[in-house]
Design a protein that fits this description.
Blueprint lengths: L7 H45 L5 E3 L10 E4 L1 H7 L1 E4 L1 E7 L6
Antiparallel strand pairs: 1-2, 3-4
Length: about 100
């Protein structure tokens, strides 16, 4: 049915239905934004916990001989004491030993 074929009452009902749908979507977006904020807070707490400890912490993805895994995260204590430098993301590390030559 074309919009020109609808009665004012039908158009009014359609408008109300669309308003309800928009409200539902706005609620969903607000809820998802809240979940994203909560996840960011959890990540920040996790990173703070990693960086305040004096222990070396490595998170490593196991791989195979043909395709070795990656370091997913290395805390700052391990980086400082082992002279590791994060390059870009946490997946690539270099040592300070070969850079001193």
């Amino acid at each position: 049915m074309n919009i020109d074929d609808k009665t004012p009452t039908q158009l009014s009902h359609e408008c109300e239905r669309l308003k309800r749908r928009v409200a539902e979507l706005e609620d969903k977006i607000t809820s998802q934004n809240g979940m994203i904020d909560n996840m960011r807070q959890e990540v920040n707490r996790y990173k703070l916990l990693l960086d305040v400890t004096d222990d070396f912490i490595f998170f490593y993805e196991f791989g195979t001989i043909e395709s070795p895994g990656l370091f997913l995260e290395v805390n700052s204590t391990a980086c400082e004491r082992l002279r590791l430098f994060k390059r870009g993301n946490a997946h690539t590390f270099t040592t300070g030993y070969h850079e001193r030559r």
